[in-house]
Each structure stands twice: as structure tokens, then as C-alpha cells.
């Protein structure tokens, strides 16, 4: 078996090629890059081959452990890139050509200067897939397909993704496709992300960047967020539903989300009995991989008590107990289908409770914000919402704070 951990010294060149887990760089989700390091004349250059967690790396053999679902493919890819790098060095030596670590890594990466927008976008989407970011993958690949259809399925050089192109794209998506301004801005965010990555990789120059001051600005329109009132929550709580039925279960998921400050369904379904410690819920959020800890309110405890029979299973709620919990794709598909099914039953529950509002799992989050109003400080709401930025919290909560404006209006015109 070829030992990937062995540093290969290319005879005569004093160049070394090594595969390692590069611990000096880490993503927000805790993953490190598998790096191919080329060293020549005491100068090293790195190529990142993939990103994995530290416990998925075999330090002794410098291989991806079999516990990783794609370990065979990754190890073959790593070996292929290492051999390719060694061949390039030996070829340069045989031709008596001078070379540096930078030159070799550029050759391994290939000529990136002429890469087109959608070819690079495919790499970007593939990275999302490797990182198991299936929600983003599904959303962003759909928006990129809209852009490609606008170009009649033709590719386009990065330099042509300019202000004129973006203005024409916006007009097409809104005027011909009937998409909202918010959807267009979300599409522009994806294009901007891809463009920034291309700049970092030297594919396109910063001077061609079409976004920013005096160029295309990404500005989201205000959105209308409507949550339930306290009385409407009470109506849902008081519905007489058959225990164990799908409507009973759907109500439990909605109310549990509300009681836990609008916890997302992707987090709710992943909750395990082991996440409950001393009356607190300690869990890792899927959206940003942050660990959060919240005291479980008594009403949320009452819901958990109704599922105590599932304690022999891994997950509190039953949806994920029948899927391979090592397969992120399966978990994503099951979560998405559950969300769709639950939302359908929540609409029926709204009618039963005589609530004249559209109810979905996401509305549980809006409902908490609506009832919280200005009673809770922004800093505390930031923690409860699990927002990274206080600005995000203030902007979000601004949808639900009307008391001061109402009082100011009444002071002038009366009730």
C-alpha cells in the first residue's frame, strides 16, 4: 500500500511533495483542508484538495479514514494528485528546466485564467455538495439555472459578467419570469460569491468586479413578516387532536419551535435525547455550526414528555430514526419532505383553530418575534435567535415592533 504520509523527495531536484491535514487553516464548521504541499528551495506552496474534520483524518498514514462516507474517492483523488505533482517535477528535471514550488502548483491546478463563469460555478456547487450543504446546493443551483437559461444555456467569460449583463439579467428575471426583487438580489449574492472566489484564485482581476460603490449594489427590499398573536398560539394549544396523529405531531413541532425561540425544523429533527443536560438543550445549529444552550421551558418539556417512548431511539422526534445518520443527503431529503408535509397539516390546523393566517414552521419563528416585540432587549434576542450579528437581530425584530410608532401616531391624531 502506498503510504501517503511519506514525504516524497524527487531525486536530483531537492523538491518534496507531501500530503497533510493543514491545521493552520480552519472553516467555521470545524473542517480542515487536506493539503498537497510542494517545497523547493525552502519555499512551500499548498493546494487544498478537500476539507474534512480532524477525526476523519488518519494522522499516521495521512489518509482519509474509512469512517468518512467518501473515503475511497478522496484517497484515490489524493494519490492521483500526488503522483501527478511528482511527474511534473520529474519532467522538469529531465528537461533540465528550472522550476519553483509556485510553478509546480500552478501546473497542477491547471490554466485557470481562461475558466468560464459556469465552469467555475460548477466547481462552487460541487464544493457545496462535498461539504453536505444540501439546502444551499438546492437553492443556489436552481438560481444559477435561471441565469444560464437567460443565456440560452451558453457559458460566459467572467469579464462579461459586468454591470450591463447584471442589469439585463435583472430586467429579464423580473419582467419576463415574474420573480421578485428579493429573489433577484439573492441570485446576485450567489454571482457575487462566485466572482469573489474567482478573484481570490486569480481567474479574474479585481478591476472587473461588477459590484460595489458606483456599480451594482445588492439591496434587499423590506419584507413583510407576519407572526401569530398570543391568542392565536393559545387556540393552537387548545385544539383537541388525536394523540399520535400526524396533525397532533405537526402541532407539537410548531409549538416546540415557538417555545424554543423559533428553532428551525432542521435543528428540531436532529435533536437527540443526549442533547438534554440538566434541563437544558445543548445542540449544534446546522445553519452556522454554532453550539447553543437553552433552558427548556416547561411547555417545551411537556411536548418532550409526549415522546418519552422514543428514548430507546437516537432522535427525540421520529423522522430521522429510520435514515442512515451518516448520510447527510438522506437527512436533508427527509427533513425537506417532513417540512413540506408538516406545513400542509399546519394549514389545516389554522382552519380548525379559526386562524386567518398562513401557518408554516417558519411562522413559528416570526410568531416568537411578534410576541416578544420590544419586551426583550436586542442583545438577549440575538442570543435567542442565534444570530451572529446584532444588526441582523435589530433588522429582523424591526418587523414586529410597532408600539412606539402607534403611540406617536395616536398622540397626534388620537385613537
Strand and helix layout:
Elements: E1 8-10, E2 15-21, E3 32-40, E4 43-52, E5 57-58, E6 63-64, H1 71-94, H2 101-109, H3 117-130, H4 134-150, H5 163-176, H6 181-200, H7 230-237, H8 246-259, H9 265-268, E7 276-277, E8 280-284, E9 291-295, H10 298-305, H11 328-352, H12 361-372, H13 378-385, H14 390-397, H15 403-413
CATH architecture of the largest domain: Orthogonal Bundle
CATH class category of the largest domain? Mainly Alpha
In percent, how helical is the residue content? Answer: 40-55%
Overall body shape: globular
- Report the structural category: alpha+beta
- Work out the strand percent: 5-15%
- Structurally, the number of domains stands at 3
Biggest sheet character: 4 strands, antiparallel
Mean pLDDT figure: 86
Order of helices and strands: EEEEEEHHHHHHHHHEEEHHHHHH
Distance between the termini: 83 Å
Q: What is the assigned CATH homologous superfamily of the largest domain?
A: Intergrase catalytic core
- Total strands: the figure is 9
User: Segments where pLDDT lies below 50 for 5+ residues?
Assistant: none
Strand order of the largest sheet: 1-2-3-4
The CATH topology of the largest domain comes to hpI Integrase, Chain A
Helix count equals 15
* Radius of gyration, whole Å: 26 Å
